[in-house]
Write a structure and sequence with these properties.
Radius of gyration: 18 Å
Number of helices: 7
Largest sheet: 2 strands, antiparallel
Helix content: 55-70%
């Protein structure tokens, strides 16, 4: 990976993040045309959520190719049902052992969010487990899954309200 290639991917991801909502499809194609698709996708993921639909399509195409996946409404409905059944927000603190995984973790700091064990019920691929049995969330994979779930909810809402 050359310096210019990395720089172009960095600039492209900056443009998508800062101005993606006002860029035309043609402008996005231009960005994609001058960058390495995989490097652009990796730069988008490195920045973290929130991801736009365009960002997610770039990532899926570059890192897996949509044609390799079987996207169906049935599996989307199953995921949404699992979200409703398993995902809850909790107030929690990390165990002191978590500092072994990430020294930046403060076991006294309070957090709100779902537990890794809940997310595992919806998508086990989003969970990593250490040899000691500590479960952590692969936030990149979770973000991809969440983007699909949000899009599915929007489509269902549009269908019900007649905004198709």
């Amino acid at each position: 990976m050359s310096y210019m290639s990395r720089l172009t991917a960095h600039i492209g991801a900056n443009l998508l993040q800062a101005a993606g909502h006002i860029l035309s499809d043609e402008q996005v194609k231009d960005i994609r045309g001058i960058t390495d698709a995989r490097e652009l996708a990796e730069e988008i993921l490195r920045r973290g959520a929130p991801f736009s639909t365009r960002d997610m399509m770039i990532v899926v195409e570059a890192l897996g190719g949509a044609e390799e996946h079987n996207f169906t409404d049935e599996s989307t409905d199953d995921v949404l049902d699992k979200y409703a059944e398993y995902i809850e927000n909790y107030e929690y603190t990390y165990k002191p052992e978590a500092q072994q995984l990430d020294p930046n973790i403060d076991p006294n700091e309070h957090h709100i969010g779902p537990m890794a064990q809940d997310i595992e019920q919806v998508n086990p691929a989003c969970i990593k487990e250490t040899e000691d049995g500590i479960k952590t969330v692969d936030t990149g994979r979770l973000a991809l899954m969440n983007a699909g779930a949000i899009a599915a909810l929007k489509r269902q809402l549009d269908e019900r309200t007649g905004h198709v």
